């Protein structure tokens, strides 16, 4: 469903950024589906083609969520700063943990498996820190969309459904990571007896 105001995702994001005094963050169209993100290092908000040019409530909701991250960044939102600080460690842990764990299991080298558990714990830590960051960006988006006249208050429930569904993907990813960490720890002999 299209917004009554006719805003595109890019226009909504730009309005939110400028209304918050953020003029040094670009809004770019990125390639691919679900490529929407805010890059704090390059100070750019990247939106997938459907979100960038889309005039739907979902498009402006997603764009506003990503703009919410830029607002968090400008405000010095502590969980965002912490999340950004551990991204390299979580990325390394995510890439190295599974291979190291499998190698350790194959060689029956429990020390390697334990190291893999520690590396994967960084991924779980990232996921846990990421939850409040994502929920806060969505809460900001909902408020700012109405405050800046991008959507009307009666359109908000539809935007909320989209953003709440997106938030549940982060919850699911966190639960999955925690379960995987518990499994790795159990197989490495850190929880209970080892087979």
Number of helices: 6
How far do the termini sit from each other?
55 Å
Number of E-state strands: 3
* Low-pLDDT segments, ≥5 res: none
Largest sheet: 3 strands, mixed
The number of distinct structural domains comes to 1
Could you characterize what this model shows?
This protein has 195 residues and is mainly alpha-helical. The protein has one domain (9-187). The protein is built from six helices and three strands. A three-stranded mixed sheet has the order 1-3-2. A hairpin with a 4-residue loop joins β2 (37-39) and β3 (44-47). α3 (57-75) crosses α6. The longest helix has 38 residues, at 110-147.
Summarize this structure as a short list of keywords or feature phrases:
three-stranded mixed β-sheet, 6% strand, elongated, 195 residues, single chain, 6 helices
